[in-house]
Amino acid sequence: MKNVTLVLEDGTEFRGKSFGYEQPVAGEVVFNTAMMGYPESLTDPSYAGQLMTLTYPLVGNYGVPPFTIAPDGIATFMESDKIYASAIIVADYSEEYSHWNAVESLADWLKREHVPGITGIDTRQLTKVLREHGVMMGKILFDDQPDNIPQADYEGVNFVDKVSCKEVIRYNEGAGKKVVLVDCGVKNNIIRCLINRGVEVIRVPWNYDYTGMDFDGLFLGNGPGDPDMCEDAVNIIRKQMSLSRKPICGICMGNQLLAKAGGASIYKLKYGHRSHNQPVMEVGTTRCYITSQNHGYAVDAKTLGSDWKELFVNMNDGSNEGICHKENPWFTSQFHPEACSGPVDTEFMFDRFVEKLK
């Protein structure tokens, strides 16, 4: 294992060892407090451009499942077609793995997909730095490559355009109700949750004008980066809302895009929500759900128009976790009801959406 150094933009350094692909990399350093699910997290396109720190100390002990494709054309155990995180940072990498479904080690997978991995980092201290300062840019540098210093930008980059599909893809054709799914970096399990409810899914690029298509409902998927970079998508959503009252549901980035289309503004959280245990209250009820989340931006609920209201609120910091229109069947969640990995307490969001299709 080669010696590596994680250098944060404020000059803070963490020394460790490489266990993945041996190439310097730069990106936004974020932390995830989930205790499991690294195959799903690494392949979540929402992590594009980020160096993902896992706070759970032991990582790699259950290996990596095979990359197989189900009959519906979706990867069986992964959330996309490849690893999208720029790197993974852990405290203790387990070289030995054991799991009924594992076919390779995390290290072998990272090397095959050209993704760096660091172990031996004090991730508790790193997380404290990020919580106090806020997420920041960082670089993973190899001691034996002193002149190979990467550069990376996160602010002002349209990562959605980088990860979105480039053409229309159909799933479950002829099944019944048709749902247009706007791909901003959508996770496979969102597609799977829709298919399992008997609808045809028409997956379109993030900036595709679907307003003239034949469909029964609109679904806005998750994605990476700053929603303010996706003005084309917002304008198309706004156009759709002016043409029809067809149901609209959004998840994560989809929540932010629908809110922007409704006139609200977005702000960046200090260090984001990336975990499996975010408590969310459904407004107007006493119901609180434990949710899986992965986002660095939030809707400023105070800027919502008079036709809109909050649907969910985060019980830790009071930030917005979903909105709904007061009259039309348009609603969202900032959290991931499809989880994968994580709790599935809120998968009813898909049922609510499908029930409104006419």
UniProtKB/TrEMBL annotation:
Coiled coil: none annotated. PROSITE patterns: GATASE_TYPE_1 (PS51273). L-glutamine binds at residues 46, 223, 225, 253, 256, 294, 296-297. The active site is at residues 252, 336, 338. Keywords: Amino-acid biosynthesis, Arginine biosynthesis, ATP-binding, Glutamine amidotransferase, Ligase, Nucleotide-binding, Pyrimidine biosynthesis. Its EC number is 6.3.5.5. Pathway: Amino-acid biosynthesis; L-arginine biosynthesis; carbamoyl phosphate from bicarbonate: step 1/1; Pyrimidine metabolism; UMP biosynthesis via de novo pathway; (S)-dihydroorotate from bicarbonate: step 1/3. It catalyses: L-glutamine + H2O = L-glutamate + NH4(+); hydrogencarbonate + L-glutamine + 2 ATP + H2O = carbamoyl phosphate + L-glutamate + 2 ADP + phosphate + 2 H(+). GO terms for biological process: 'de novo' pyrimidine nucleobase biosynthetic process; 'de novo' UMP biosynthetic process; glutamine metabolic process; L-arginine biosynthetic process. Residues 2-141 form the Carbamoyl-phosphate synthase small subunit N-terminal domain. SUPFAM superfamilies: Carbamoyl phosphate synthetase, small subunit N-terminal domain, Class I glutamine amidotransferase-like. Residues 1-177 are annotated as: CPSase. GO terms for molecular function: ATP binding; carbamoyl-phosphate synthase (glutamine-hydrolyzing) activity. It comes from the Bacteria. Transmembrane segments: none annotated. Composed of two chains; the small (or glutamine) chain promotes the hydrolysis of glutamine to ammonia, which is used by the large (or ammonia) chain to synthesize carbamoyl phosphate. Tetramer of heterodimers (alpha,beta)4. Belongs to the CarA family. HAMAP family: CPSase_S_chain. NCBIfam families: CPSaseIIsmall, PRK12838.1. Small subunit of the glutamine-dependent carbamoyl phosphate synthetase (CPSase). CPSase catalyzes the formation of carbamoyl phosphate from the ammonia moiety of glutamine, carbonate, and phosphate donated by ATP, constituting the first step of 2 biosynthetic pathways, one leading to arginine and/or urea and the other to pyrimidine nucleotides. The small subunit (glutamine amidotransferase) binds and cleaves glutamine to supply the large subunit with the substrate ammonia. This is Carbamoyl phosphate synthase small chain. It comes from Marseilla massiliensis. The lineage of its organism: Bacteria, Pseudomonadati, Bacteroidota, Bacteroidia, Bacteroidales. The gene is carA.
